[in-house]
Amino acid sequence: MLAEAGADLVWTPGVSDIYPPEFSTYVDVEGVTDVLEGARRPGHFRGVATVVSILFHAVRPTAAYFGQKDAQQCVVLRKMVTDLAMGIDLIVAPTVREPDGLAMSSRNNYLDAEHRAAATVLIRALRAAEQAWAAGEADADALRKRMTDILDAEPLAAVDYVSVADPDTLAELTEVDTGRGALTSLAVRVGKPRLIDNLILPPR
Fold first, then answer.
1. pTM value?
2. CA 189/CA 125 separation, integer angstroms
3. CATH superfamily to which 106-201 belongs
4. pLDDT-derived band of residue 9, with 50, 70 and 90 as boundaries?
5. Which residues contact 155 (CB under 8 A, 6 or more apart)?
């Protein structure tokens, strides 16, 4: 499968290759890990930054590819790469979606037919904010309300958070700067699975 995808080399380290005995060194990226997913999963991004840092030091890549679906992870890792002068080009690939717009995720496998249909509410909410932004809306609360109204209309969806934030700092915005745009993101429980998704509002 990897050969068909064009891979030239595969590295499959064991646990001890990554975490030697008495391992006690970690990478903490402050600020951008304190909000959104980081606020709900304390320590998660510490683990992500640490293991990715180990990977980068072992492989010494010139470029690394991550998916936009995990937008906060991309922000955290870009900050790490910049602050620690790793000299790596971090490239964010677009979110891969199902034909109806649902972001692909292993968690989708836990959705029954009814909840699978309801799960499209995430992308519908994000696209509503995207359309409002394109039409001239810059008030962040108004954009959040566009998303929340659509989510609240779906009885099978339980909203965790809705965010309109600076794309680099992840600070929540009151007004979206037309020269910078914003990151719209949300986390919603649809039945048991907790789903996340996001869209970038580009500068205009």
1. 0.94
2. 14
3. Pantoate-beta-alanine ligase, C-terminal domain (3.30.1300.10)
4. confident
5. none
